[in-house]
Design brief:
The protein contains nine helices and three strands. The chain is mostly helical. It has a three-stranded antiparallel beta sheet, covered by helices on one side. Helix 1 packs across helix 9 and helix 3 crosses helix 9. The radius of gyration is 20 Å and the shape is globular.
């Protein structure tokens, strides 16, 4: 993991616990212990293969609305544009004579893991979680909760965050939740972290 990725991951974690004094105290205690004599080189990464770059690539793609197919054997990733709710396998089957035009390699793989973009219901849960974890007792929280009853909750949610200059915090939070979703999907198939 490079320094920028590590910084973003730590920032996301800290932003999630910034209002929880006990969790912050535990973080500072760990930092003090590390600074008190445990050399950083003694903290070794796991011997297992690092899939963080794969997780990040898939998370970025599904955040953009792509369906991702991951081959755990070759570690290849294929992204397919998601136009509404179409099924790329169904499209390929209907157009078998044109499969080369689609260039869908995952259909030739022995096995793959399909990871779809988040559904509206999932995004709503992430929005609700954001409100409960980061905006808990703020005046903005009440406004954000009210957008769930509107016709366009995501649009209104984002507009309120822009107006409150908190869109960056939301983006970090949402990205971490998408990363968690991808890790969970991959772990269902016994893929190492």
């Amino acid at each position: 993991m490079n320094t920028k990725d590590l910084y973003e991951e730590v920032l996301a974690m800290l932003s999630r616990i910034r209002n929880d004094q006990s969790k912050l105290a535990r973080v500072f205690n760990v930092l003090e212990e590390l600074n008190a004599g445990l050399p950083l080189q003694e903290i070794r990464p796991s011997d297992r293969r690092d899939y963080s770059s794969i997780v990040m690539q898939i998370a970025d793609a599904i955040n953009e609305g792509f369906i991702c197919f991951f081959n755990p054997e070759t570690q290849e990733i294929e992204q397919v544009a998601c136009e509404g709710y179409f099924d790329p396998v169904e499209i390929a089957e209907q157009n078998e004579d044109r499969i080369d035009d689609f260039d869908l390699d995952y259909l030739k793989w022995d096995s793959y893991i399909r990871i779809d973009p988040l559904r509206r219901e999932d995004m709503r849960l992430i929005m609700e979680k954001y409100v409960s974890e980061t905006e808990e007792d703020t005046p903005l929280a009440a406004q954000l909760r009210n957008v769930f009853e509107t016709d366009q909750p995501l649009r209104n949610f984002l507009q309120l965050l822009r107006d409150a200059d908190k869109e960056g915090l939301w983006n970090v939070f949402k990205k971490q939740e998408i990363i968690n979703y991808v890790r969970e999907r991959l772990s269902e198939d016994d893929l190492p972290d």
